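In the current project phase, the collection of sequences with tokenised folds has grown. A representative record is quoted in full directly below:
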Amino acid sequence: MQDYARRCETGNGTVQNALRSLIEAGAVQVEARGHKGTFLVQADYRKLREIAGLASLLGLMPLPYTRRYEGLASGLYEAVRQSDLPFSIGYMRGARNRIAALHRGQADFAVLSRLSAELAVAEGGVVIVMGLGPQTFVSQHGILLARPEYTGITDGMRVGIDPQTLDQAWLTAAECRGRQVELVEIPYSHLLQRLREGQIDAAIWNLDELSSGTMEIYSRPLQSPEARRIAESSSEAVLVIDANRPDLERLLPEIIDPALVRRVQDEVLEGKRIPSY
């Protein structure tokens, strides 16, 4: 009790009354173990969130500009809907931006590719709660080229890169390694336009977004073995939380079934379900 009172800058009696209220509300169960003290044996994180005024849940994911992302958003909504927990999704470009929003307390969880999530975990401050399976984030990445005679990224090219989009930045760096190119910083959503305008010669892109025959932009497979290896880990969507939110680490697996999310996403991709998010 003294530790909690010190952390909360309040008296022991206040902490004892608060704990008694949580027990009476059925939010926690404790067990007295003699001289060892009192131990928490069970916690209902949904009730704890309600008591704390955090009844609703907010997730962040990329803008739903592809059918795959629309399916992912629809799947997350369907999974949480079955738990009767109020839920909403916010849309934000760039894995780094979504991670920063988590640290600011602006969202409960963020959707990243596994590659971005593992990079973020290595940097510290976030925890991976669950993966949703291969190709739930993207189907594949490729090289987009401004002219049909280009066969890949070569010396002298201007290559678009978005440092805020971790996957795209890492894939671009890997594909360009050993080549003398100019890296041009451009927001991911503007890369296609810059290619069309001739301001850059090439860019790494999520091929889910490319409709064949609709644009004068040409795609080629990734050529670098390193880039192809990285691309494999960027296809899976994962949910991450701030490392200081253990309540969410327990709550999210209780309410989000990855198999259900994938099933809904597949139905959207196959045209069997209208996206709903």
